[in-house]
Structure to design on (697 residues):
């Protein structure tokens, strides 16, 4: 194996380090210094690594992105906020990787529930007498570590802010929490770390929304999720980055006994976008991973999932659908690992792809690794065009061919949109699906 | 209504229909019977415009227009309706949406305004009752997870709402139990009118006990080998198809 290409980014680190949060936390300084070391040794992942063989991120080294000097809330247009900020949610807004108190909406949180910026949580400022340090020290870097790959190490060393959520035991949140991640500055590095902790028997929904203005930039977000015993978390990811942007978003989930975790991953934006969704399941935990990726023009969209059944009676259900047009390329890598101890695991994985042009491409790689002997596991993959029989059936019902094709494409994608239970998010995602493909003859009413 | 003259149809290089002649007037019901592989389904596919068939000779004229030249959706808007032998499942598209889109496409084709939402629902619910279907079917995806009988009933429901002029029933009776057959037949009979014609393609004589045809034609080896009145169906019931097939072979 040839040597890794040295990254140009570590040279910049010294100058930006003092501006990063957590200066007064020795444990974090230690974590950051180890991460910097790890990243300097490996750089960003290369296609030589098996988990990255279909996705080449070397463009990030060709273009030097830099940490913006400050966030400017006034750069964020009212239209953008209106389109993406959920009206019925508590929201933490990050602009160019830093918290904007002005744009965020955090009033009326129930007692004991913490939703704030990670930088604030680290400083302990603006949050009364609360000291989050012990909680952060025992969670940050515990769902994923530097060994995972270069993006995780890079994120750990560089993160400038993020979302911190703590829901105490038995608390059921009436409204969703939104992380709205906006990048307005050209060539920006927006490196954010999110920590979501849902304690025993609590229930919450969190939405991560990634958007940006029409620039090239790099988002690298790492979200660590801890779902306590018998707790329930639904996490949505709406990735609508600019079509010139690079996006890496890693979500690493630790589920305790009987915990339920549902993820809905909408990957629509970016020039090159990669998501990791890795879940570790304990005894009888349940994990549902849904995904929809839409690629047009020359977009490259990679989704990498890993479900780790560590203990018996776990249930996992995974459904990923992709629609690729023009010269877009999609990647789906889905790994399910059933440990020797994880008897009675019940796991289903499904990946379906619709290619709308001859130049569109998808690489799909489902992997089952089963070390237990009494399990029920299955997977299925399809790659194809629209079904001619369905087109003819609709035509024989008076629908012209073009409309029939559009209807069938939307119907294919809509199955995943329909699973969203937050009305405002559902409508927002639907608008975006509609905007990405020809919609002649398609009536929104039935979608 | 429909005039088929010397129709020859091939799939690839293989001739399937070898000179079909058939005249159907408004208000008539014609049954096309025949053994498997005789070309019955090919005939209904060609009339509805399914791709994959080449008309090598002859003509099909519908209401004075060349039917073969029309795209399938135009035929449908002009009043040709095919009830499928195997209705297709369309996940993600609800039944009620498809019905509305189809009805509006027809209205647009004839220069009429879109159907009023309330009138539409009233119409649809009336037809749903006629076919003894559950209203819930309307909001389910087209044919998805329907039983065989439910799919066939759904075809007739569509027909009842779209009010076509020429209805082609492709083996609508096959796979139906007697109760479902009665419901489907009643649905079809309720649509009989002096302006509407039916072509019923079937393998089994049983259907004709419930829907009385005016004419019966027997198709064998791509040709109509015998035509007659309803009594021909009874003769076929008794003697089978082989005596007619032998006639062609001879």
């Amino acid at each position: 194996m040839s040597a890794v290409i040295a990254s140009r980014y570590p040279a910049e680190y010294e100058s930006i380090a003092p501006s990063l949060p957590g200066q007064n936390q020795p444990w974090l300084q230690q974590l950051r210094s180890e991460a910097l070391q790890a990243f300097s040794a490996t750089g960003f992942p290369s296609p030589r690594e098996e988990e990255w063989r279909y996705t080449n991120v070397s463009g990030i080294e060709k273009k030097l992105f830099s940490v913006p000097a400050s966030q400017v809330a006034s750069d964020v247009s009212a239209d953008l906020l209106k389109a993406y900020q959920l009206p019925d949610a508590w929201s933490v807004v990050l602009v160019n990787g830093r918290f904007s108190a002005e744009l965020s909406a955090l009033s009326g949180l129930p007692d004991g529930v913490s939703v704030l910026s990670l930088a604030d949580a680290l400083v302990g400022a603006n949050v009364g007498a609360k000291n989050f340090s012990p909680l952060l020290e025992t969670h940050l870097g515990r769902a994923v570590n530097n060994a995972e790959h270069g993006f995780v190490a890079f994120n750990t060393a560089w993160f400038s802010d993020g979302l911190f959520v703590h829901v105490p035991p038995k608390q059921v949140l009436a409204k969703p929490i939104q992380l709205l991640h906006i990048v307005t500055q050209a060539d920006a590095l927006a490196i954010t770390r999110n920590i979501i902790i849902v304690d025993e028997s609590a229930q919450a929904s969190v939405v991560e929304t990634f958007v940006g203005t029409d620039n090239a930039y790099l988002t690298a977000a790492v979200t660590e999720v801890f779902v306590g015993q018998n707790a329930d978390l639904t996490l949505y990811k709406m990735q609508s980055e600019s079509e010139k942007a690079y996006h890496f978003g890693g979500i690493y989930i630790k589920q305790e006994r009987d915990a339920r975790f549902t993820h809905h991953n909408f990957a629509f934006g970016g020039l090159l976008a990669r998501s990791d969704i890795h879940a570790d399941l304990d005894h009888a935990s349940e994990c549902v991973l849904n995904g929809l990726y839409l690629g047009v023009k020359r977009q490259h969209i990679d989704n990498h999932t890993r479900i780790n059944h560590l203990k018996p009676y776990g249930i996992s259900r995974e459904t990923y659908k992709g629609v690729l047009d023009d010269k877009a390329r999609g990647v789906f890598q889905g790994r399910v690992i059933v440990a020797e101890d994880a008897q009675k695991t019940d796991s289903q994985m499904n990946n379906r792809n619709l290619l709308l042009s001859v130049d569109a491409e998808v690489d799909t790689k489902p992997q089952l690794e089963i070390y237990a002997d009494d399990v029920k596991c299955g997977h299925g993959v399809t790659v194809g065009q629209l079904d001619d029989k369905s087109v003819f059936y609709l035509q024989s019902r008076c629908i012209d061919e073009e409309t029939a094709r559009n209807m069938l494409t939307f119907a294919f994608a809509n199955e995943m949109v329909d699973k969203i239970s937050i009305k405002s998010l559902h409508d927002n995602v639907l608008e975006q699906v509609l905007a990405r493909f020809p919609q002649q003859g398609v009536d929104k009413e039935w979608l | 209504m429909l005039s088929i003259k010397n129709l020859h149809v091939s799939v690839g290089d293989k001739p399937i229909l070898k000179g079909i002649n058939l005249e159907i007037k408004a208000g008539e019901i014609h049954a096309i019977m025949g053994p498997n592989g005789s070309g019955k389904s090919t005939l209904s596919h060609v009339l509805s415009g399914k791709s994959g068939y080449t008309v090598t000779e002859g003509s099909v004229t519908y209401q004075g227009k060349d039917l073969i030249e029309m795209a399938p959706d135009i035929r449908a808007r002009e009043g040709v309706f095919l009830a499928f032998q195997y209705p297709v499942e369309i996940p993600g598209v609800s039944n009620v949406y498809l019905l509305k889109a189809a009805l509006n496409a027809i209205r647009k084709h004839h220069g009429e305004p879109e159907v009023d939402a309330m009138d539409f629902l009233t119409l649809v619910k009336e037809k749903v009752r006629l076919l003894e279907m559950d209203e819930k079917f309307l909001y389910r995806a087209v044919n998805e997870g329907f039983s065989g009988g439910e799919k066939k009933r759904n075809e007739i429901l569509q027909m009842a709402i779209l009010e076509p002029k020429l209805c082609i029933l492709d083996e609508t009776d096959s796979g139906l139990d007697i109760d479902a057959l009665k419901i489907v037949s009643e649905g079809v009979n309720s649509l009989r009118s002096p302006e509407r014609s039916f072509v019923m393609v079937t393998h089994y004589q049983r259907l004709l006990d419930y829907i009385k045809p005016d004419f019966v034609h027997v198709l064998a080896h791509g040709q109509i080998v015998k035509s007659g009145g309803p009594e021909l169906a009874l003769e076929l019931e008794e003697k089978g198809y082989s005596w007619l097939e032998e006639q062609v072979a001879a």
Q: What stands out?
A: The first strand of chain B starts at residue 2 and ends at 11. Chain B has a mean pLDDT of 91. Residues 95-109 of chain B form the longest helix (15 residues). The interface with chain A takes residues 48-51, 71-73, 75-77, 81-82, 84, 87-88, 90-94, 96-98, 101-103, 105-106, 109, 141, 158, 162 of chain B (CB under 8 Å).
